[in-house]
């Protein structure tokens, strides 16, 4: 799974999951372009990689604008001579229920997650195609984009959109030998740290202690370090045959998410008019309505948050 000689860009990699991705790619031999809006975080990330013997440099700036995407690709090519791997991880949160969500709350999250993924992938894919590089596009999704989460209209829309774009890009880039995949990480992050259900797991991770097996196995919830190897694998030559997939990872669990497929199909001669829908909807479609949101098993008593 060596990435020696390859060059990667990881957006939003100053801290958290993005930092873990950048460090793992460098550990496997890639030269890494770190990106973050926080200059200090980006410089610290670079230092953490170079002090461990890796190769890295930073581009500071917000993803979303085309100018940032162009700057990232140009920096990779000018500094390291090529670009092989793009990991689109950058993101922000502005959580609130629908009726309280402002235009700015919605637009900011969509701009960073969805538009930022689009502009960066467009720039990277254009370079890869023009230079006949069988590159790797790895976009970060979320369980929220797959199932929905209360209070995250903007985030759910962005993450679901990313998966839709990945499925399209896998088709468009196949002839060029470029793969495009989405990863759904489940890990201790600043976001999950605010959820009481994950308190014991996040606390253990913060303290450098082993995470309780309930979380690692039952929930598939782990540390950033548990997610990073999948990023490196998908970036490698070993994953040349993997494209258009949505892959979940966390703790001890690896999952392949299905593409949406009909669960029920019904026909009515002459079409589905109002009378036919009223008479037959409940027993054909209505009885198979799909659940929304994630459902977690009850926490064992010893892992419940202390009052």
How big is the Rg? 21 Å
Helix-strand sequence: EHEHEHEHEHHEHHHEEH
Number of E-type strands: 8
Which percent bin holds the helix content? 40-55%
Tell me the span between the first and last alpha carbons: 46 Å
Beta-strand residue percentage: 5-15%
Overall shape: it is globular
- The side-by-side strand order for the widest beta sheet comes to 3-2-1-4-5-6-7-8
Secondary structure category: alpha/beta
Q: How many strands, what sense, and barrel or not for the largest sheet?
A: 8 strands, mixed
Which stretches are poorly predicted, pLDDT < 50 over at least 5 residues? none
Count helical runs: 10
Oligomerization: single chain
| Overall pLDDT | 96
Describe this structure in words.
This protein has helices at 16-27, 39-50, 66-80, 103-130, 143-147, 153-173, 199-206, 213-219, 224-235, 274-284; strands at residues 7-10, 31-36, 55-60, 85-88, 136-140, 179-185, 246-250, 253-257. It has 307 residues and is of the alpha/beta class. β2, α2 and β3 (55-60) form a beta-alpha-beta unit. The termini are far apart. The model has no long low-confidence stretch (mean pLDDT 96).
